[in-house]
DNA sequence: CACGTCATTTGGATCGATCAAACTCTCAGA
DNA sequence: TCTGAGAGTTTGATCGATCCAAATGACGTG
């Protein structure tokens, strides 16, 4: 294990003071070019790296962003790709991602509170925003830097930077795609009303149909499971639907057992596997924007209030469908 | 933003010295019970939390574990669940997980080197071990604490703690399961020889067949894609196979388009979605064991050299199969 | 009653960086 | 020649915890 190289070692090696080394790294413009070169050479020669702990102690900045890692449920989600993008974008701005877990809003707030005392992350990224999100208001009250991936769905939580993907635009595009294929009776399988994300996605579908003067009555609510998706699809088909737009790939998976003209949401690996047309979120970009909004705020730059990205329809032909006679 | 509470504040409040507060938290046995109570009360009253930075500065311990977040490829992997388990287990031992990305072994080593200089993680968790893994030897040479999830496949990399799931035991169980269903000609679709994981999984299959005196010639190598899985399945079925054990769910997905008697590996969401029987890894436990091995080593306790866990066969009935006439 | 022992508590130094303020030159202008 | 400004560099203090060595106090013993 190489001995720790401190700023004092570099200073000695380059025949300058500690402060000058610090200046070379943090405010190079105040240092004479010749000195700067000499110090940089010393830094390289010794393999010096600033100690995050020491720097944090003095400046109060940790260069850490904290993110909650979500529980995976049925695994048909999008979080892991977002997290990967976040880690990469953060690294590009010299930030690192610190993970934590929580079971609900309340425990997440407790964890955030604890982290603030111990590791003092410079910023937080919240995902899965929802109506009456206690986390956002908690952070906002304390004036702590954070971004949400997911817009604030309640009025009271507005006013913080966020990044989101335009679900309504997505389902609208999906519905138009089905209209283009000649479908006239297109249903929507959603979640229970009241979820911001779900309602938004339903709105896009109904907007597209309304624009054509078509029936927007063919919609049902589910708990999001494939089973309920299948049941809902069954009923909607009986009521005359020939195609279905779904609030998620999970629901779409069930629907696909009833009819092939189905569009899902999130473009999960499952969609790719079974040939389900689905709406893909630009997750790497969403993550990059989150980091951008946060780091702008952290370095005092003016920040965009929010960013709304568009999903992309990924069209596929179903390769798998319900097996009528399950053997083995 | 609540003002920072330091150990000195607590000391003043409880009418003791800083050191006594520190002792209450770190070596309670040297403090008189009554004092201990008084200090703890002060800690609660003020909401004191140790500053990780200050502690690290003095002790050299960061209470951080660093893990590389893998790229997701086709998303049919297991890493996100492992990572979640790791974060939870780490938190239970008062460690936090720090993420980083890397594109290959070399860049991962560079990143680790950099992290060591800056954030000084106390330990590392390496995943996706392989033959001639440069990362493990690099860390071992420097005597840095790390665990791998995945055993060391080369002789030279042995000697560090690891946690792994017994792939051979898994495929052996899967093969026996198929034998129990009456199959006699069971094929194996694997990866190119030379990958430790892949060879191990093939070995379990061949062991089970050999034990019954059956033919172990029905095996092919692929690049792991569903397409090649499908092609391999086609050929093996033509050569007489009635059932197939697969090295991954991805390959199995392709194989399932040829015959329904297929077993995959990893029990990914895709397997659940399409009703693919698959071998599930005990990821939460694997993660917990990784943390255990690491923290044991970090606190000087004797550590188990390694841990080998068994996968579980999750049997399902295919709900989806190849669609003969793809409409829409 | 002085003294050693043990349990408990304390003050000062320290980790490695940055802040704030002071210092040293050099050079232009009075 | 002296002064002042400005560029460039240095010194000392500080962030909040823990290490170390030493002080304090209670208690039993010869």
Provide structural commentary:
Chains A, B: InterPro entries: HTH_LacI, LacI/GalR-like_sensor, Lambda_DNA-bd_dom_sf, Peripla_BP_I. Chains A, B: It comes from Nonomuraea pusilla. Chains A, B: GO terms for molecular function: DNA-binding transcription factor activity; transcription cis-regulatory region binding. Chains A, B: This is Transcriptional regulator, LacI family. With 328 residues, the first copy, chain A, is α/β, with parallel strands linked by helices. Chain A has 13 helices and 13 strands. The relative contact order of chain A is 0.11. The C terminus of chain A is likely disordered. In chain A, helix 1 packs across helix 2. In chain A, the strands form 2 sheets. Chain A has a 6-stranded parallel sheet, sandwiched between helices. Chain A has 3 domains: 44 residues, lambda repressor-like DNA-binding domains (434 Repressor (Amino-terminal Domain), Orthogonal Bundle); 129 residues, 3-Layer(aba) Sandwich (Rossmann fold), CATH 3.40.50.2300; 115 residues, Response regulator (Rossmann fold). The interface between A and B is large, with 69 and 70 residues. Strand 2 of chain A pairs antiparallel with strand 2 of chain B, so a sheet runs across the interface. The first copy, chain A, binds a DNA duplex (30 and 30 nucleotides) through helix 2 and helix 4.
